[in-house]
Specification:
The chain has 134 residues and is an alpha+beta fold. The chain contains 2 helices and 7 strands; from the N terminus they run βαββαββββ. The protein is globular and about 40 Å long.
Length: 134
């Protein structure tokens, strides 16, 4: 079933027990540089309106933030604040991608942004504040 995954993406194997549990709902992929994460939306991701559930998208965003920031900043982080704007719905079968940008990095806090989009439009714009651990 991975033949419909865009080139350059590979299976992401998270270390978080919650994310390992979530992977039973659907496999998340990461590109080779770790700068983008992707997911093929299927019926297990849907809400009663047959579009991707907002909770799934929020979990994806928070997890992508944590993984990307830990990789780029070489430190563990925890979420202090997370804000999401749901802009458009996505259909079953859509490939969606999440991309993170570090807006400001301090000694104790990191500010970052994330967009989630499909091939046609932006689905979610998110911002977050993350505390550096250790």
């Amino acid at each position: 079933m991975t033949s419909d995954i865009p080139a350059g993406f590979e299976v992401w194997n998270p270390t978080s027990l919650f994310m390992q549990h979530l992977m039973q709902v659907g496999q998340i992929y990461r590109n080779e540089t770790g700068s983008a994460f992707g997911l093929r939306i299927d019926k297990g991701h849907g809400n009663v309106h047959s579009v991707a559930h907002g909770g799934l998208l929020a979990t994806l965003v928070d997890s992508v933030f944590g993984n990307y920031l830990a990789q780029e900043c070489q430190t563990a982080v925890v979420t202090v604040n997370l804000s999401l704007d749901y802009m458009n719905a996505t259909k079953m079968g859509d490939w969606i991608e999440a991309h993170v940008t570090i807006d400001k990095r301090g000694r104790r806090l990191i500010y970052a942004s994330c967009t989630v989009h499909n091939s046609e439009k932006t689905l979610v714009k998110a911002s977050g504040v993350f505390a550096v651990q250790g």
